[in-house]
Amino acid sequence: MELLRFFTAGNVDDGKSTLIGRLLFDSKSISTDIIEALTKQSKTSGIDTGIDLALLTDGLRAEREQGITIDVAYKYFTTERRKFIIADTPGHIQYTRNMFTGASNADLAIILVDARNGITDQTKRHSIISSILGIPHVLVCVNKMDLVNYSQERFDEIVNDYKEFAAPLNLKQISFIPASALAGDNVVERSEFMNWYEGETLMQFLENVKIDVVNSEGASRFQVQYVIRPQTNNLHDYRGYAGKVLSGSYKKGDRVLVLPSNIETTIEKLEKHQAEIEVANALDPVIIHLKDDVDISRGSTIVKINETPQTEREVNATLCWMDNNAFLPGQKLILQQNSFRTKAIVKDVVSKIDIHSFRQFESDGGMKLNDICKVSLKTAEPISFDAYKENRHTGSFILINENTNNTVAAGTID
User: How many whole angstroms separate alpha carbon 5 and alpha carbon 239?
Assistant: First the structure.
């Protein structure tokens, strides 16, 4: 069954959590005991009728007390057609880092717009981050249509405004749905008040939108997560390299290159679930056995001989600074790309991106919480990578403070 990962974003009080709650409630994806608990909590919050659907995603007590979402809340549900993972991201501008991480692996962005307010700076900000992260699909959900008397004219005005703003962003695919999360219009059930809208409901859209599957015909990428050497009497000479095929495919007999050491060898056999297989496809967990005794460690990359990625000690990247402490020039960092780790420094902060206008302006060399910047990085060991727009698995990374072990930034390689 296909898996769709999507996230919601919007202004504070645009109804993101209510929308997800309505989606889960109307699709009967909530158990009876949870409904009973939420009913009690809703009454405690002063809601006398029904359930406060936002409580389904506002999981932290501090959030509930303030009536806002401040962290990324994940929810999982399944229909007959698909499995879904939802990331409900916060709307406050100071939580850009939360949205950046919540959106990093998403197939779809649902950007909520309050029908009364139209396109705001936050709408622009979330759309720009979606563009930076290369989200395949963007759905603009014009919420609270009940508060503008379900006006088609108002909906069309917002659609035209968004298209005009989004033109330079190079968003791959944009769709629009008018809805009322609180009333349930066009979420799971079609609205009787918007007969002028002939498109899909939100649930229909989620079940039918095309998912960009990792291409098994594309460049083959495999990164070693663990070197398996049991050294038992029965498996005295066993040496396997466990990991996940990040993209492309591998088969027995393939001539491959081990990076960054640039050693050529041949795949002797492939194992999956303790059985030998002929072909390993994208996202398969496998163990690769090589014909030659090669020095390989965790983080090494195995690629086909004619499909080599870039392997460099300097890379240009887009960073979202996530640490409460500002960046210090010369700060000692660790770059982690999947299972590969190496020491790194930010060589230069080239420019800063205005997340309201998408313009770049000259940097003063600093980075503070939630800043998104273009940077140049230098690593102690060569890193094998593809540009993020070509391969999201090998083109993304995090930066870790070497002294505190805190994650201080997330980045995409340009």
Answer: 35
* Stretch among 26-35, 172-181, 368-377 having the lowest mean pLDDT: 26-35
Domain 221-304 grouped into CATH 3.60.10.10? no
Torsion angles phi and psi, residue 145, rounded to 5: -65, -25
Q: In this predicted model, what pLDDT tens digit does every residue of 370-404 receive, in sequence order?
A: 889 999 999 999 999 999 988 988 999 999 999 99
Architecture per CATH, 310-413: Beta Barrel (2.40)
Cβ partners under 8 Å of residue 350, min gap 6: 316, 363, 373, 374, 375, 376
Domain boundaries in the chain? 2-208, 221-304, 310-413
The position carrying tokens 């649902």 is: 110
pLDDT of residue 264: 96
2-208, CATH topology level: Rossmann fold (3.40.50)
Q: What is the pTM of this model?
A: 0.82
Tell me, yes or no, if the two domains 2-208 and 310-413 fold the same way. no
